Amino acid sequence: MQIGVPKETKDQEFRVGLSPTSVRVLKDNGHAIFVETAAGMGAGFTDMDYVQAGATIVATPDEAWKQELVIKVKEPLTAEYRFLQKGQLLFTYLHLAADRVLTEHLIDCGVTAIAYETVELPNRTLPLLTPMSIIAGRLSVQFGSRYLERQQGGRGVLLGGVPGVRSGRVVILGGGVVGTEAAKMAIGMGAQVQILDINIERLAFLETLFGSRVELLYSSTPQVEAVVPDADLLIGAVLVPGRRAPILVNRSLVEQMRPGSVIIDVAVDQGGCIETLHPTSHTHPIYVEAGVVHCGVPNMPGAVPWTATQALNNSTLPYVLKLANHGMKALEMDEPLSKGLNVDSHRLVHPAVRDVFPDLAQSI
Description:
The chain is an alpha/beta fold. It is built from 13 helices and 15 strands. The chain has two domains: 2-119 and 304-362, NAD(P)-binding Rossmann-like Domain (Rossmann fold), CATH 3.40.50; 130-302, 3-Layer(aba) Sandwich (Rossmann fold), CATH 3.40.50.720. The protein has helices at residues 20-28, 47-53, 61-65, 100-109, 130-147, 177-189, 200-210, 221-227, 251-254, 305-326, 329-333, 335-338, 351-356, and strands at 2-5, 32-36, 56-58, 69-71, 89-92, 112-115, 169-173, 192-197, 214-218, 233-236, 262-265, 286-289, 292-295, 341-344, 347-348.
């Protein structure tokens, strides 16, 4: 199969869909890989690295996009819509529940779109979302600690505190992969940490992991209202696979937070769980609303592309190889991969996204 790897166009998105190592594996399996020039530069991979792995370097995005299978990291942006075509296989992160315009275009153009974030194993885990969730969770605390600095507009709080001065308070909404990794980082910095989740079994697991180092609370509206105002750093880490994240913190609650407190919403690519937060970018990562610093960078792992590209490829390569070897038949052979199918031949097929856009579910 002919496989295209375009250069990412999202703001400061330096990850790349295939690493040279992945290209070598695909080449050894008889496939032809076309990589747009400089696609891997941001992640530390030169064009020569790809050539040595067996890829062909192409000069324009058109040449990378015109292949049978296109491997990306982030969803196509408006300027890339013209490259999408009927019969083409697109494998990337999509997060369609938060993007009606992209959903409509994928349906209209007839592309077959498989989303990393909805590939799902029998135990309900999301193998292609997990590596980026780990990175985003860890980065959320790194970002948050930086924006708490006074020069960045924050309160001037050191998360770890010092002897005689209390450490910072970190409140994490959601105890999944993102929330767990954020807690690990926050604990490592010496912060006081609270995790809220509605899953009692998950909270019990987190107790075995963290013991008394983290306060584990059942998430309810009164509980959220009780802890959010005292947070120096509030992290949104809510995930409902394939659907928009629910709003857990409304504007009036944000207004009760101390001026200079920081909100990092990792759920922003699924709509976000904080009412006052909207997507930002690596170029302009923060804004201040109600006196609180907000950060909603949807491609947070793009800040560490060398790590993130390799972590992502470790998980995606087996699925890419199946698609390359078998085309659409791979979905019949691999049930977890079939759950990743979002749009196919002018039809919106993923159940969760259909529930979000019921009118589009009728498309033919």
